[in-house]
Amino acid sequence: MSIAELAARDNAEWCDTMCRAHGTGGAFAERAWTSAVRTPPYYPDAVTLSPAATAADVLGVIDAGSGASVKDSFATLDLPGFDVLFEAQWIHHPAPVTRPSPVVWEEATPDTLPAWERACFDGEMSGLFPAALLAEVSVLYGRIDGEPVCGCVLTPRERVVGVSNVFATGCDEDTVWAAVVAAAAARFPGRPVVGYERDPSTALRHGFRTAGPLRVLLKG
Question: What are the chain's domains?
Answer without folding.
Answer: 3-91 (no CATH), 93-210 (3.40.630.30)
